[in-house]
Amino acid sequence: MNVSLLISAAMRYSAPVLLAAVGALFCDCAGVTFIILEAQMLLGCFFAVIAGYYFQSWAAGVLCAILASILLGWFFIWITMKMKAIELVVGFAINFLIDGLTIYLLRMVFHQTGSFVSPEIPAIPKITVPVLSHIPLIGSIFYQQTWIVYAAFLSVLVAAILIYHTPFGLHILSSGANPEAAKAVGIDIGKTRIKCIMIASVLCGLAGSQLSIGFLSMFSEGMTVGKGFIALGALMFSNRKPTLVLFITLLFGFAEAIGNQVQLSGTIASELVLMIPYLAVLACVFARKPVAEQI
Amino acid sequence: MIIIKQIELRKITKIFGTLTANSEVDFTIEPGKIYGLIGENGAGKTTLMRMLYGMYEPDGGEILIDGRPVHFKSPKDAIDAGIGMVHQHFALVPTLTVTQNMILGRPIQKKNKLLDIKKAEQMVDALGKEYKLEVPPKALVKDIPVSIQQRVEILKALYLGADLLIMDEPTAVLTPQEIVKLFQTLVELRNAGKSIILITHKLNEIMQITDEIMVLRLGKVTGHVLTSETDERSIAEMMVGRQLNPQKEKKETDQSEIALEVTDLEYVDKWGVKAVDHISFTLRKGEILGIAGVQGNGQSELIDILTGMVNNYSGSISIAGKSVSASMGTRARRETGLGCIPEDRQLTGAAVGGTILANFIMSGYRTDDFAGKYLINYRKAKERTWEYVKRFTVKTDDIMNDALSLSGGNLQKLIVARELYLKPSVLIAAQPSRGVDIGATEYIHDTLVEHRNQGNAVLLVSNELSEIMTVSDRILVIYNGRFVGEADPRTTTEEEIGLLMAGIERRDSSS
Amino acid sequence: MNFTYRPVPISAKTAIMAVISGLLFGAVLIFATGNNPVIIYAALIRGACGSLFAIASSIRWTIPLIFTGTAAAIAFKGGVFNMGVEGQMYMGGLAAAVVGITWRELPGCLLIPLMLIASMIAGLIWALPPILAKLYYGSSEVVPCMMLNYIAMYLTDYLVHNVFLASGNRGATIKTDMIAEQSRLTKLIPSSSVSTALLIGLIIVLLYQLIIRKTKFGYEFEICGINPRFARYGGVNVNKTRIGVILLSGAIAGLGGATEIMGVRYCFESRFVGDFATNGILAALLGSCSPVGTLFGAAFMGFLKAGSLTVERTTSVSRAVAVVIQCTIICFVSAKSFAAILDLKGIRPGKGNTKEGKTE
């Protein structure tokens, strides 16, 4: 087993989940039940490929992915805050809505079924950090990754500072922990939550771009395969600690990378390998100390 | 800083649905005075103050500061105008520190825009010293006692530059001694030129400290007087607008049999605090035992232990002679003849969102009266529900309505009706009159006495000392999870019990 | 995050508004991709109820949704957000198929119940981990449910691929052998896919109705859904009730998998669940989790599905448009203020604010 390749792959697999999990962290701290990460990533995937293909530029792809994700975020905000819909229900519906919408658009606009592959889809350029990439073993962290992967890891640091060391962070935490207290000192909870959802939207747009044009340069129906929910899982186990979010998503990334390497060796059926990330999340649930539900 | 000269509320009206919370209320606030805003529960005191604090917008009338009309769209506008409010349920974030809570509304930052926690902590210390309201800046709010939390709230308002301080029922969570201290602080603040509005429903407090008193009843002003020119009696008349009924007479009962015996209860809560500390007592049939104490001294936990909502405790309980093991669930305990009117109506006492019927049959749906082995006889259940709804004067058109449609007092009566349906030999009544108007309170007290007269035992747990004094046969005082004294309501005084509630044990007869 | 869901009654006005906005959004989408919405919707209605065949097709697509819808509705009503219906259906389907293949020599009157029971057991086993996670590991049930959906999908693929692959199949399509003739459900409408599975489904709905209207268990789990703390205080064993609720839900979902295989496909095919589970959940949400409401919701979703298939066959528009319409409807159905848009006068004084008013 090639350890360098493994680390490199784990980084790549972790990045989208990490971005989504950091986005979810903001929303969770602000008291928003935000489960449309999956939908935003998928929409990001779709628009990154489409816009990249049309404009022949990966940058346009990433930009459109983020814009699409933000638009969806605004729809969520409008319908939950203005129309007073239930976040959980809307989140659930939006996840499937976007699944259907991307399938529909793929068929209607590109007359493709299943997936859209073309050599003309541009890929996000890979960056190799000069000196650092020569360090043995961990050098592979800095070898041939897109900037989004680096951004993902940076986002953890940014989140840690923003949430726990700035006035904005105080607004977020108070809006989530005691909205009445926030209101009483004149904090606009709505605006704070909207900002958090916007942050999550941008991160999910990036995550989608990474998934589709960061590595494979293709779009396939439902290609996020539950990564948004894996991100939610990571958040659930993290106690809102950014470092734990990072650690857990890396764990999932490694699980997936190891599975794929094993699969290449041909000893284990592919179906079983595909199960690994989900099993890893499930294992995390039951590995924790039992706590009875408080009612 | 803007120094407020005068705030005037002119013909303020607020309507919620069919309920007129405030109707053409006029109120003028001058600097350097303490105002009392008094009225029954539901009289519209809090609503009025929330409009002044920008939390609601009035439906009619206007607010003027120094003669100029202002429109508060949010508390932020009110804060900017120099108005601060200390809420009844403190507006603090329990998971943040005292300092973080203080600077929530106006952060202290370094040059690089990050929070300057060190400087903020120094500010909290300095401000605390200035107003003689010391607080621990680094402690998490959830770890400090309520009286200190209240100080944080006051300091927070002062930090935000409040010249007018609105205090909503500030004494509800304090011991008599802490109340004295709070009042000293308020007087000092007044002498420093700040104005204070004290919202309360306690007459003695308002007489003790205020300069002017405004009385609200059913949303209307029924009196506006100088404190020096009035007395408790006339204020009470303005509040209630009628004579109070005499309390139901307590009959002589046979108190020889023990209904509930509790020995050596001990319980450590999830934060590792010993919430109940070696509690033992006996409750006899035909007796109302009152448990007095300031909120948060272990009463809630004690009730949870008795009813089986909490199981990880040690000690022994026996109900009507039957021993109850710790692992026994809520249902098994109810079957031994235990009933409970819980302290939180909305959270525990009812399923708002379910029908009145569904709420009522919770106590009886397992009994032969209207259920078989697996099925519920809903026809019979409806008959019974109607019968009890009428008997307990719960005001509703239809028992298939949502329980949410009931007012606080009516919902409480429904809960009392439900708990009495099985005629429990031991009835726990926790804060039975909280947030309930005077009429319903009288009714509930009479019902408790009646239940006692029939030879049942009642355990009354309340923060309202007056309630405990009028209804109980015997009083136990709880402090810090322990019983610190026992008293006979006929021979003791409120002051004496107040001392016990503050943890100052009597030398002579401490149990 | 707050993963608790309490069913809220939905007014007819809100439901109608939501359906209209869903159809409107669909129309915009159809128009934007160069088609005439009127023609497409006409084709949709024709395909859903234009002929006996069309009606049979609508019913065929409604049947699995009755099962998944009721499964979801029961769980939601009991306060458990069971998003794992998909996985439970896969497991139920596989269990039924395996029994149907293995004991070929048994008579139908024995084999059919055996298959149904096997599917229910498989479904309820698959529903167990999420509720254990919720009750005893302080986790929400949503994420474990989603994980188990994916695991079930891959696990059944693996099992079929490696153990139960159809004879003479080299693995091009992952499916099992056909189940025994006598284990297939009787057709109600000849030469269609409508079988006695419909009757089983209706019985399930009826049972659900009876449970909540007549039984103690029904009362208990409804109260647990509204306010679990109140239920516990009142003497209900909330954990036991919730486990009961999700096991029931899982069993019904598993049964749905079995009837799909016994009534339509006659073998386990990879990914046969498709959107049955999600559509069922949507049906439950549309019908505010009541038995009759869910039945109507399922019928509406089945109607859209049948229509959309015709749309895809006869026009150039993809059937995925139906998914978009369904999901848009659900987004709006839970929106409390949405119907108020109709009231041109703005927010009427009356409801809405009363709750605030009572806090004094």
Helix content of chain B: 25-40%
In percent terms, what proportion of residues of chain C is strand?
Answer: under 5%
The SS-based structural class of chain C is mainly alpha
Shape of chain B: globular
Q: How would a textbook summarize the main sheet of chain B?
A: 6 strands, mixed
| CATH second-level architecture of chain C | Orthogonal Bundle
Average pLDDT level of chain B: 87
Please give a structural write-up.
The complex is a heterotrimer of chains A (295), B (511) and C (360). With 295 residues, chain A is mainly alpha-helical. Chain A has one domain: ABC transporter involved in vitamin B12 uptake, BtuC. Chain A has eleven helices and four strands. Chain A has helices spanning 3-30, 37-55, 58-82, 87-110, 147-165, 167-177, 179-184, 189-216, 227-236, 242-265, 270-287; strands at 115-117, 126-127, 145-146, 218-220. In chain A, helix 1 (3-30) crosses helix 6, helix 5 packs across helix 6 (167-177) and helix 9 crosses helix 10. Chain A is globular and about 60 Å long. Chain B has 511 residues and is α/β, with parallel strands linked by helices. Chain B contains 17 helices and 20 strands. In chain B, the strands form four sheets. In chain B, strands 6-7-8-3-9-10 form a six-stranded mixed beta sheet, sandwiched between helices. In chain B, helix 14 (408-421) packs parallel to helix 15 (438-453). The longest helix of chain B has 16 residues, at 176-191. Chain B is globular, with a radius of gyration of 24 Å. Chain C has 360 residues and is mostly helical. Chain C has one domain: ABC transporter involved in vitamin B12 uptake, BtuC, CATH 1.10.3470. In chain C, helix 3 packs parallel to helix 7 (197-214) and helix 3 runs antiparallel to helix 10. The model of chain C is unreliable at 344-360 (pLDDT under 50). The chains are: A mainly alpha (295), B alpha/beta (511), C mainly alpha (360). The interface between B and C is large, with 46 and 32 residues.
